[in-house]
Amino acid sequence: MFFLSTIGSVIILILDILAIISVIGSAESSLSKLVWVLVILFLPVIGLILWWVIGPRARTGSI
Asked: Where in the cell is it found (predicted)?
């Protein structure tokens, strides 16, 4: 059981890092980038989902 929770935590950590890299590389304003990074850091799973659902790439329709 510990092994599975560790794997899940590592996967979430990797996805959060990728999301933060995506935020930094986006065309958003600096303040908006800061807010997104903070949301992802303080709410890892929810922030990650929000970034993918309502982030700038979601608005343009690209994947």
From this structure: Cell membrane
